[in-house]
Amino acid sequence: MTIIFDHSYARDLPGTYLRVTPDPAPAPRLLILNEALARDLGLDLDPGQAEAWFSGAALPPGADPIAQAYAGHQFGGFSPQLGDGRAHLLGEVISPDGRRFDIQLKGSGRTPFSRGGDGKAAVGPMLREYLISEFMAAVGVPTTRSLAVVATGEEIWRETKLPGAVLARVAASHLRVGTFQFFAARGDQARVRALADHAIARHYPDIAQADRPALALLDAVIAAQARLVAEWMGLGFVHGVMNTDNMAISGETIDYGPCAFMEGYAPGTVFSSIDHQGRYAYANQPLILGWNLARLAETLVPLIDPDQDRAIEIANDRLSGIAGRYRAEWLSVMRRKLGLVGEEAGDAALADDLLAALAGADWTLTFRRLADEAALRPLFDDFRTMEAWLPRWRARAGEGAAERLARANPAVIPRNHKVEEALAAATAGDMAPFHALLAAVQHPFVEAEPYMLPAPSGFGSYITYCGT
Fold first, then answer.
1. Where are the beta strands (DSSP E) in 125-180?
2. How far apart (Å, rounded) are the C-alpha atoms in residues 145 and 106?
3. Does an H or E element contain 79, and which?
4. What is the mean pLDDT of residues 342-358?
5. Which of 62, 87, 184, 411 has minimal CB crowding within 10 Å?
């Protein structure tokens, strides 16, 4: 079949991208096609089409590939020009239910934004994004999705020689905080305004008639991102690279580079090999949420009010409320994870005191086993604090708590050792472990013992890499 593309970003926002053609893969081989997602998008793709179209070997009819411009604060330092250095947006599709999605190739070759990179990607990182985004979708966390991964048949060099691959990524859009920063840094307020109008029309149409649309956009993104980061925290998810160019205006999780899941509860958990200062550690994610949103607010100040001082005052008022909004979203997540019904004044203290009691216990299994003390005890080196906490939880949770816990807390997450096993096998040409792990994380509330247990003691400290 033919994909029916639209190109609202390219049409509405001239000057925010460059037209550039993906590199043709020399010997494409389809590794995986997300048939369920394809159906949701209204696409009836056969494997041959997917192999050619999503590897750069052939452009689907109607595609108009572009590389989008954006800037970003990377580990706190501002880079005024980043952009799609190894990605090509083919266009947008309208799903049968009327929603608009980008289809983008990642790892598809150099663009003018490549900054010395080769524009390519390896099999392992592309399959990691596929796997973890599918888990996020399965547990209901807003996320970009992966439509396919195609091996290119060429080898790329990182620390060693690796098989190359291209990921076909599906997103509500690829608008980022960094997209706004790119044009604000150049004083191009006309394009910042156009970006805001496009973002509102695409993601938050209900606010189009607001008295101050740019302020309403800021409010909407604050709300969406506060919910998103609260969900990450509930899962023990560490994004690893929360740069402003990796914060999507849509409120979706985007760019699964050095991400991983915390096992034993440790607020300072860091996995990324390049996060030497722990800027994006697990416990810092809510703080970076506010920091990144302040950078978005800076770009919108001229659109909020013609009086700059008044605009800054209004923006700062919104920013000062982020911590409270996040806390409310986090408490909502924790009530769900604790199997609580309704809201009571002592819930925040109950949740906070649980964190104080965890002290290295497995994050995922603790919530899953709260109603089964015999299964819970082995997770703790010292159970005394938890033992004192449990009667408070039982009194608050009441009847039916075990069933609510099972519905709210995944039994299976992408355990880091299992992810590495699957990716290593896939890199060597064996996709069977990947498919088995994928099947488990796509049904995360179903107990599948091989995928539920923490890493064995010999696994050691886990380090992730961006895959660039």
1. 145-157, 161-171
2. 12
3. strand 77-79
4. 97
5. 62
Q: How far apart are CA 28 and CA 110, in angstroms?
A: 18
Contact 296, 250 (CB under 8 A): no
Cα-based distances in Å from 282 to 263, 372, 398, 459: 11, 27, 31, 20
Instruction: Count CB atoms within 10 A of the CB of residue 93.
Output: 19
How many DSSP H helices and E strands does the chain contain? Answer: 17, 11
Tokens for 44, please give them.
């009836």
What's the helix, strand, coil split of the chain in %, to 5?
45, 15, 40
- Cα dihedral sign for 232, 233, 236, 237? positive
Q: Where are the domains of the chain?
A: 8-177
Q: What are phi and psi of 234, to 5 degrees?
A: -65, -30
Task: Cite the active site residues.
Answer: 245
CB-based contact 456:448 (threshold 8 Å): no
End-to-end CA distance of the chain: 33
Give 189's Cβ-side CA count (13 Å radius): 8
Residue keyed to tokens 């096998």: 425
pTM (2 decimals)?
Answer: 0.97
Report the DSSP pairing between strands 260-261 and 145-157: unpaired
pLDDT band at 458 (very low <50, low <70, confident <90, very high): confident
Q: What is d(CA 213, CA 386) in angstroms, rounded to the nearest whole number?
A: 48
**Gap between the Cα atoms of 334 and 233, Å rounded:** 9
Nearest partner of 119 among 86, 168, 155, judged by Cα: 86
